[in-house]
Specification:
The structure holds two protein chains of two kinds.
Chain A (H helix, E strand, L loop, with lengths): L7 E3 L5 E3 L17 H9 L3 E6 L9 E8 L4 E9 L5 H5 L6 H7 L6 H16 L5 H26 L6 H7 L1 H8 L6 H4 L4 H7 L6 H21 L8 E2 L2 E2 L5 H35 L13 E3 L16 H6 L6 E4 L2 E4 L2 H6 L1 E4 L50 E4 L10 H9 L8 E4 L2 E6 L7 E6 L6 H31 L16 E9 L2 E10 L2 E8 L1 H6 L10 H7 L16 H8 L7 E6 L4 E6 L9
Antiparallel strand pairs in A: 1-2, 3-4, 4-5, 6-7, 8-9, 9-10, 11-12, 13-14, 14-15, 16-17, 17-18, 19-20
Helix pairs in contact in A: 3-4, 5-10, 5-15, 6-7, 7-9, 10-11, 11-15
Chain B lengths: L34 E6 L9 H9 L8 E5 L4 H10 L5 E7 L9 E5 L7 H12 L5 H10 L6 E7 L12 H19 L5
Parallel strand pairs in B: 1-2, 1-3, 3-5
Antiparallel strand pairs in B: 4-5
Classes of the chains: A alpha+beta, B alpha/beta.
Chain lengths: 620, 194
């Protein structure tokens, strides 16, 4: 039984039925957010401060964070995550030709345009009833692996990396810096640094060697992507039923020259982030609490098997489990399902603390296979924006609160190895292997020799483990790309150069869903078509899952929960000089797709964190 | 008609000192100079899309040898990487809409003086850029910091009015188009053989 809270149960054949009786089995009671104690302490205690990380909205979107901290006891008392911009892609797409969705939804993100376009294509081909040829599936896998590689690299060395640089540590943890100058690294034979202080020095933004190396790697990865897909961002070659261009052995070889360079980078990235995590843990065990929360995560899986994927909802459990990253949901550290249909049924979106009006009606009582569907499921959702003032007890975000089985689950690239290991299903083991608690990744040689690395499910889950797993994920992405490259070459050798399937736009009522992922985790596009036009289009992004506000029961979203659990370990002479680095590390460990700049306003003693997102966190 | 303003820097980039052959002294007269005209901005945001939409129009016009016209609206880091991989340009002219509180349709041409903010601010701009933010200011700051721009960069800004969804300019900004094209042609004229 995968659901504890939703009234859906499955028989021995896997058929779902509604449990219980009553007018509305999905009905729920809301619980008010209690802020009385926080307000009292804010008024009474001088060392309790409201610390607002205020957004500065630019074109791409914005996200802010409100917290109340007790600087004497070094605790966070309140945390509220705020998506500050309505972007309205779901509204824009209504009534349009479904083929437009690929190009319009791509704009939901400046980083992840390729994954949005692909996810949209998957949803449309399911609705159209067409299946791409094998080579097209391989091309998607290859191109998007590059997108994931640069995405994770960018985060580790350009966005989160500066939090672990000499420049930042000297400012926020001078004692730690002193220790770094006296600490030998453990992985120096791979990354080349003998002292932790040297490693932190090269993490410095703009000028650090590792920062610049990450920047260069992101270029190579993009070159690999455009070799196969023409352009980035917002590729125009992704279509329902495949891709709209041809490839040759030559373009495959050009791609490989880029991919091979990522092999060595992945080896070094793992060694670097192993050393960073271990250094902080050794310095203070309490760093293990930074950004911690229960192991509740979900992922839809990525990288389709060209022999298994048939684009149907009917067979989604089967083709989903053939992916290189197994779909799944983990609750309290336990895997509860790997079936895409169940993952789909468990998804709901709530708007009690979001600037939306509750939609009414339930156009779809069941999914296309007859399983009960919640009225709060994206296929039943209607986006009804309702702007208003900010109230921490009421509405404070443009993000909805997605929940799985009414539990806040987080999305992340690290969910993929975690779920794949626990599931133990992985059918593709040329470069990957599983143990009950680890994934072994055989990274081929480039200039550095071939090496097998092993990512182990960590005994603690926190900001450092998110980043460490992200580094291993680069290796995961590299070898899946290489595996697909070899498969693609085999297909080309057979002379099967087909990259797309002809189609006509159906005029009857159709449903579709794209089950995919971004570099930072879960991505789903749900659509309904009628008379050749989009009736409903709903996007759930990884940062919507992570940056969401509290749910109807007052339970926090993942950022909020992680920040609440984060101890304040920063060294500061006075509360006026508090920078909030622990909170920022906790939030950034989710790869929130946002850069943050922190300023101190001495006058009012508030920290302002300017946050610009690629808008993944906003409701689309 | 909207007010139109042209501000020339003391270096007067639109009228470089030519040598006897009609080319700036620092250029090798034996080769055709390489000039790039680039538009920067988001599409579908009416006046804010001035850069890319103007490039669409410029590409329909004839340009002298050595002049490339290109939409540079794909993120400053990507632009920087592309500039790095090409032979260097002698001059780059960047065009875009920037909100600075001027009268809608105002045209401002200036020489980029390569003045950078502090490194923390530059890192913030990089972080924005890698997460998808496209802006003329970010492009100038980032490409300058990483030394991917030629010494001679001319910027032509237009003050936007209408930022709604769409591909049409407001009348004020539409009215500025001929002036901007004239400024672009002036900006490259002094660099080309007569």
């Amino acid at each position: 039984m995968c659901f504890r809270n939703l009234p859906i149960e499955f028989d021995s054949q896997g058929s779902a039925t509604l449990r219980g009786v009553g007018a509305d089995p999905f009905a729920y009671q809301t619980k008010a957010i209690d802020r009385d104690d926080v307000k009292r302490r804010l008024a009474k205690d001088d060392y309790v401060k409201a610390v607002d990380y205020d957004p500065v909205t630019r074109v791409a979107g914005a996200l802010g964070f409100h917290s109340v901290v007790d600087l004497e006891n070094r605790k966070v008392l309140e945390a509220s995550s705020i998506a500050t911009l309505f972007r309205g892609y779901e509204v824009i797409l209504k009534g349009r030709d479904p083929r437009d969705a690929i190009f319009i939804s791509s704009r939901a993100c400046g980083v992840c345009g390729g994954v949005h376009a692909t996810c949209s294509a998957l949803a449309i081909e399911m609705a159209f009833g067409i299946c791409p040829p094998p080579l097209a599936v391989v091309i998607r896998n290859l191109a998007l692996s590059m997108e994931f590689i640069w995405d994770n690299t960018m985060h580790l060395f350009m966005l989160a990396g500066p939090d672990y640089s000499e420049a930042m540590i000297k400012k926020t943890e001078p004692t730690l810096w002193d220790k770094a100058t006296r600490t030998e690294t453990r992985w120096g034979s791979i990354h080349g640094y003998s002292k932790m202080s040297d490693l932190f020095h090269d993490m410095n933004p703009l000028v650090g060697k590792l920062y610049l190396e990450g920047l260069e790697l992101s270029r190579m990865a993009r070159e690999g992507y455009v070799t196969l897909m023409g352009k980035y961002p917002h590729p125009e070659t992704i279509v329902p039923g495949g891709v709209s261009h041809t490839v040759t052995i030559q373009s495959f070889n050009v791609y490989l020259t880029r991919l091979m360079k990522t092999f060595d980078f992945a080896k070094r990235a793992i060694a670097i982030w192993n050393d960073i995590a271990d250094f902080f843990y050794d310095a203070n065990e309490r760093y293990k609490e930074c950004g911690t929360r229960p192991v509740n995560m979900a992922d839809l899986g990525i990288w389709d098997d060209p022999k298994a994927y048939d684009a149907t909802y009917k067979n989604c459990d089967a083709w989903g489990e053939q992916r290189w990253a197994t779909p799944g949901v983990i609750l309290d550290g336990k895997l509860v399902t790997t079936k895409l249909q169940q993952i789909n049924l468990g998804l709901e979106e709530f708007i009690e603390h979001s600037y939306y009006e509750q939609w009414t009606g339930q156009p779809h009582k069941t999914d296309p296979l007859g399983a009960p569907l919640s009225p709060y499921h994206p296929w039943n959702k209607e986006t009804k924006p309702k702007p208003g003032g900010t109230n921490w007890r009421e509405k404070y975000s443009w993000a909805t609160a997605p929940r799985w089985d009414r539990v806040a689950v987080e999305a992340g690239t690290y969910a993929r190895p975690w779920i794949t290991v626990l599931a133990g299903k992985l059918p593709h083991r040329r470069f990957l292997d599983l143990t009950p608690d680890s994934m072994k990744i055989l990274i081929p040689k480039y200039l550095a020799p071939e090496v097998q690395v092993e990512w182990k499910i960590p005994p603690v889950f926190n900001a450092f483990e998110r980043n460490r797993a992200r580094a291993y994920s680069i290796a995961y992405q590299c070898v899946v790309a290489y595996d697909n490259w070899l498969i693609g070459m085999d297909i080309l050798k057979t002379g099967d150069y087909r990259t797309s399937t002809p189609f006509t736009v159906p005029k009857d009522n159709r449903m579709g869903v794209g089950f995919w992922g971004a570099g930072r985790g879960w991505l789903s596009h749900h659509l309904e078509l009628d008379k050749g036009a989009i009736v409903n289009y709903q996007i759930v992004t990884p940062s919507t899952l992570n940056a969401c506000p509290k749910d109807p029961w007052g339970n926090p979203g993942p950022y909020e929960e992680a920040v609440m659990a984060t101890p304040i370990l920063e060294e500061f002479e006075s509360k006026e000089k508090f920078k909030g680095i622990d909170i920022l590390r906790a939030i950034r460990s989710f790869d929130p797709c946002m850069p943050c700049t922190t300023h101190i306003y001495a006058g009012d003693q508030h920290i302002t964190c300017e946050v610009n997102t690629c808008a993944c966190g906003d409701d689309d | 008609m909207p007010a139109e303003t042209t501000i020339e820097s003391s270096r007067s980039p639109a009228a470089p000192d030519p040598d006897a052959s009609g080319l700036p002294a620092k250029l090798d007269a034996s080769r055709t100079p390489r000039l790039l005209v680039g538009g920067v901005g988001y599409r579908l945001l009416r006046d804010l899309s001035f850069g890319p939409l103007l490039v669409d129009r410029l590409l329909r016009e004839p340009w002298p040898d050595g002049v490339e016209v290109e939409d540079l609206s794909y993120g400053p880091i990507g632009v920087m990487h592309n500039l790095e991989s090409r032979p260097p340009y002698d001059r780059i002219v960047l065009v875009g809409a920037v909100k600075r509180g001027r009268a809608p349709g105002d045209v401002l041409r200036y020489s980029w003086r390569r003045q950078l903010p502090d490194e923390e601010e530059i890192q913030a701009r990089v972080a924005e850029a890698v997460t998808g933010v496209i802006s003329l200011d970010n492009l100038l700051i980032i490409a300058t910091f990483f030394e991917k721009l030629p010494q001679d960069v001319v910027v032509i800004e237009v003050e936007p009015l209408d930022e709604d969804w769409g591909e049409e300019f407001s009348p004020e900004v539409e009215g500025a188009v001929p002036r901007v094209i004239e400024e672009i042609r002036l900006s490259i004229a002094g660099w080309l053989p007569s």
